Each structure stands twice: as structure tokens, then as C-alpha cells.
Amino acid sequence: MDRMRGKVAIVTGGARGLGGASASALAAEGACVVVADVLTDQGETKVAELTADGGTARFTHLDVRDADAWARVVEETVSAYGGLDVLVNNAGITLPRTIEQATLDEFKHVMDVNLYGPFLGIQAALPALIARGSGSIINVSSNSTEMIVPTTTYYAASKAALANLTKTTAVHVATQGYEIRANSIHPGPHATDMLADPEVARMPHIQRMRETVPLGRFGRPEEFGQLVVFLASDESSYITAAEFFIDGGLTRVSYANERGSR
User: Fold this and answer.
1) 155 among known catalytic residues
2) Which of these is catalytic: 81, 116, 154, 155?
3) Could you tell me if 143 and 187 are in contact, meaning their C-beta atoms sit under 8 angstroms apart?
């Protein structure tokens, strides 16, 4: 299990959920992983788990909205491990609102984390990736870029913008001859701790969503992690500016949206 041997990766939102699964998969394949998160206790627990399993990892506190914090994290990573090869922009938030319920302050807050955070991360990481001679930028978008749900006013807009930021970044670095790739992953529902909670799993809309997935189940976090490893590794050396949907075919299902009451 050494597909990532000698590689160094930063994973934002790496303390839990799909970010945690990404950190685990990368560490299992030999990468040195920096778990970057605002959740200090959970992040340190994640690092302890990775190192107990024989991986190499460290935790750093990171608010992705802070440009100075990004500079510090990249500097610390290069100092600790000698360079940087992979950036996984996974940290994100959501606030369910329709356009009628939405407020500008909330919209700005979601965009700060979901779009401006990765933007700052890419800018901070690029010099280290260029110095390394090659690299991979992986931005975690969402299947909400195609599967339209009325309450994802903020979230879907931020993730669609992130997908396009990924493409403009990918084309720029490629045409500059940097040997750096940039791709976006668009996950649907996965059985993270939140969705695995029995109380949440019994909620009617969660059950309906599960029944709608053509493959008949939610994704497993480790399946998401393996896609991250593929895009981070040299196995995907000719793939850039691409979108990868990992949602069991959910975005390809035609269905009628229920009308909400006023």
C-alpha cells in the first residue's frame, strides 16, 4: 500500500467526515498527511488514529478564511516534511435556505468557507507545489452543482463556483508548464457519522434520498477516500480540469420535486 509513498498532503476539514476519510486513505497509502481543521480535539484524535495505524500525520489548526493562517500551514508543512504535493480542499459548511429565506450575511458566510477558503488555499499552496515540480489540487465540490434542491441556495452556488475555480486553475497551471493538476469531486450522500446516526437515518427525507440512489445505498466514506487517492496519485497524471461525481448515480435520476407550502 504505497501509492502515495513520498508524497505530502494537506487535507482541510480533515478531522472527520469525508475529510477524515481522505486523510485515512492517503495515510494508508504512505502519504505524510497534515490534518487541517478548526476542530482541534477531533483533529488531534484523527492524527492519533492515523499514527496508531502506522501512518505519518500531524494536526494543525486552520480557519480556511484566514490567508495568514494558510501561509503558516503551508510553511509548517514544508518545514516538517520537505515539500507539498497534494492539496485537498474539503472544508465546507451548509445552511439550508430557500431564496426567500436567504440573507446576504449568511450567503457571505457560506461563500467565505466554501469558495474563498479554497481560493486562499490554492494561492498559498501553489508556490510549494511549483517548487516540488508537480502536484495535485483536489477541490471537494458537490453533486448539488447538477442536482438542484431549493434549500441549497447558498451551498449549491458556492460549490458550482468552486467547480469552475478548479477548471480555471487547472488550465492556468497546465499552460504554464507546472505539471500540477486540479480536479473537483462532487459527492452525494455518504454514510458519515452524521448520516449513520440512527435518529438521522430514520428521517423521512433521508430515507427517500437513500431509496432514490440507483445503487440503492449511500456511499461509504472509504470509497470517497479511494477516489481522493487516485486523483492525488500519479495514476491520474493525465487528468485535469475534470469533475468526478461520486453519488451512486443520484444526479442522473429524473424526479419531480414536491411543491412546498407557502
Assistant:
1) yes
2) 155
3) yes
- Among candidate residues 88, 240, 243, 230, the one with its CA nearest the CA of residue 178: 240
Q: Collect contacts of 77-82 with beta carbons under 8 A, ≥24 apart.
A: 77/8, 77/10, 77/34, 77/128, 78/128, 80/32, 80/34, 81/8, 81/32, 81/34, 82/8
CB within 8 A of 234, min separation 6: which ones?
A: none
DSSP H or E segment with residue 20:
helix 17-28
- Exposure string for 216-245, b = 16+ CB within 10 A, e = fewer: eebbebebbbbbbbbbbbeebeeebbebbb
Q: Class of the 8-117+136-247 domain?
A: alpha beta
Residue with cell 500540477: 180
Q: What is the pLDDT along the chain (262 residues), one digit of tens a residue?
A: 799 999 999 999 999 999 999 999 999 999 999 999 999 999 999 999 999 999 999 999 999 999 999 999 999 999 999 999 999 999 999 999 999 999 999 999 999 999 999 999 999 999 999 999 999 999 999 999 998 889 999 999 999 999 999 999 999 999 999 999 999 999 999 998 767 667 666 767 677 788 899 999 999 999 999 999 999 999 999 999 999 999 999 998 854 444 443 4
- The HSE-up count of residue 101 (CA atoms within 13 Å, CB side) is 10
Domain coordinates of the chain in residue numbers? 8-117+136-247
Residues 89 and 18: their CA atoms lie apart, in Å, by 11
